[in-house]
Amino acid sequence: MLEVMDLYKSYHKGGFFSLKSRQEVLQGISFSVKAGECVGLIGESGSGKSTLSRLILGLEKTDKGEVKLEGDDIATWRKKYPGQMSAVFQDYNTSANPRFTIEEIIREPLFALQQKTELRAFILELMDKVGLSAKLLIRYPHELSGGQLQRVCLARAISTRPRIMVLDEALSSLDVYIQVQILELLRDLKRDLHLTYLFIAHDLQTITYLCDQILFLYQGRIVEQLAKGELSNAKNEYAKRLLASVITFGGQGQRVVYHKCKQIRQEVGV
Ligand SMILES: Nc1ncnc2c1ncn2[C@@H]1O[C@H](COP(=O)(O)OP(=O)(O)O)[C@@H](O)[C@H]1O
Ligand SMILES: [Mg+2]
Predict the structure, then answer these.
(1) How many angstroms does the Cα of residue 26 sit away from the middle of ligand 2?
(2) CB distance 47 to ligand 1 below 6 Å
(3) 1-81+200-270 CATH pick, 3.40.47.10, 3.55.40.20, 3.40.50.300, 3.90.1280.10
(4) Beta strand 221-227 pairing with 213-218
(5) Mean pLDDT of the chain
(6) Which residue minimizes the CA distance to atom 2 of ligand 1?
(7) Which ligand 1 atom sits closest to the C-alpha of 53?
(8) Which of 15, 50, 196, 259 has the highest Cβ tally under 10 A?
(9) Residue 83, class by beta-carbon neighbours within 10 Å (0-12 exposed, 13-18 middle, 19+ buried)?
(10) What is the pTM for the complete model shown?
(11) What strands lie across the sheet with 22-33, from one edge to the other?
C-alpha cells in the first residue's frame, strides 16, 4: 500500500555564514507497508522520525526519492481518496483549534468531506470508541486533560474512515494506562477496518504491542528491519542495544503493567 523509495532529506543548518551547509536528516530510506499491516518505526529523539512522517504525509518535499501510495504519488492519492489518510501527532495542543468546541473539532474533517447525514449520532459513536463521555462535546480544548484531548484527535483521525494512518509519537505524552486503552482501540480498528498503520515511537513497548514489522531508525538511516517474532535476530548494534535495554528493564515488567491496567480498567468499568 505504502512504498517509500530511497528517500533523502536535508535542512539548512541555519546561521548567516552557514547558508550553504546542510544537515542530512534522512538518507536512503526505503521500506514498504502492506495493506492491513502495522509497521513500527523506532528511533531516538532527533533521528528523523517526524521528518519522515511529514514527507510521507506530503507536508514537505523530499530532496530525492519517492513516496507512493498504491502506486500514486501522495498528492494524487489524497485527491483520489479524500480523508482516507490521516495522522495523529504527539503535540495534541497544536492539533486542536482552541476556539472550537470538541464537537466542532471532530466534525471539521467530516464537513470537508460533505458528510452531513446522521452526523450527531456518528460523533457520539466516535466518542464512545475512544472512551470519552459525550458530555465533553460542548467543552473547549483547554478544559480537557492531555489524554482526553489526544483521544479527541484520534476520534477525528478515524472519523473519515481512513485506510492508512500515520501516528507520530501519538501516545508518547500519555500515561501508560491511557496508552494501553488507545493501543487496544488501534488494534481493534486494525482488525475491524483492515487499517494500515505507520506507528512511530521512541519506545519498543508500544511498538511491539501493535506492530508486525519494526524498523530501527538511527541517525537518519534504517539500520535494521525485523518482524515482531524475530526481534532476537537483530544484527545491528544500535538495535541490539535497544532490545537489550527493553528485555532487562521492561520486557516482562511492561507486560505486567499492561495486564494490570487492563484489570484496573475492568474494575472501574471504563
Ligand atoms: N524544519 C526543519 N528545519 C531544520 N532542521 C530540522 C527541521 N525539522 C527537523 N530538523 C532537524 O532534523 C533532525 C531530525 O528531527 P526530527 O525529524 O524531528 O526527529 P525525531 O522526530 O526523530 O525526534 C533534528 O536534528 C532536527 O533539528
Ligand atoms: Mg518527532
Answers:
(1) 13
(2) yes
(3) 3.40.50.300
(4) antiparallel
(5) 84
(6) 11
(7) 17
(8) 196
(9) middle
(10) 0.84
(11) 22-33, 2-12, 64-69, 72-73
